Amino acid sequence: MKIVxxxxxLFALCAVAFSWSSTxxxxxxxxxxxFSKNVFQPxxxxxxxxxxxxxxxxxxSNNSVIxxxxxxxxxxxxxxxxxNLYYGGPGWTYASIQMxxxxxxxxxxxxxxxxxxxxxx
Length: 121
Ligand SMILES: *[C@@H]1O[C@H](CO)[C@@H](O)[C@H](O)[C@H]1NC(C)=O
Ligand SMILES: *[C@@H]1O[C@H](CO)[C@@H](O)[C@H](O)[C@H]1NC(C)=O
Ligand SMILES: *[C@@H]1O[C@H](CO)[C@@H](O)[C@H](O)[C@H]1NC(C)=O
Ligand SMILES: *[C@@H]1O[C@H](CO)[C@@H](O)[C@H](O)[C@H]1NC(C)=O
What we know:
This protein is mostly beta strands. It has one helix spanning 2-18; strands at residues 22-25, 32-41, 50-55, 64-73, 82-88, 95-100, 107-117.
């Protein structure tokens, strides 16, 4: 019984430890890497910061539809931001992601965005 509880706690900890990296969509083998970008926001004392990362529609000029967005937290110490897909995303040519930092902690995340050439659709 005790072991079961410990395993549960372990799983819970793991779930928490990785929840600051987020993924939207599923990457298909035919998808191409559209871009990868690091976003850094310095900490502001006693402040929660809301940061938006926009993937502009101009990607459309490259005929790509987003299929997957990977957000990788670079802090890796459980103080990365909590993330929400604000609009767009997989299936669209644009997206906006809202990141909410912890109080007094900035953020350092890497976005990796995959897409599909329109001719595959
Ligand atoms: C990946 O894309 C190809 C071409 O659009 C499609 O035929 C295939 O079903 C897709 N696979 C998955 C797992 O979505
Ligand atoms: C479109 O693709 C070209 C070549 O891969 C690249 O240099 C350019 O930055 C891309 N444009 C956009 C808006 O992503
Ligand atoms: C963000 O994290 C990466 C990977 O840990 C690191 O190489 C980079 O220097 C960091 N960027 C800033 C501005 O601290
Ligand atoms: C996690 O790491 C970042 C960058 O090194 C730092 O700014 C932040 O204070 C750390 N968070 C905690 C809880 O130690």
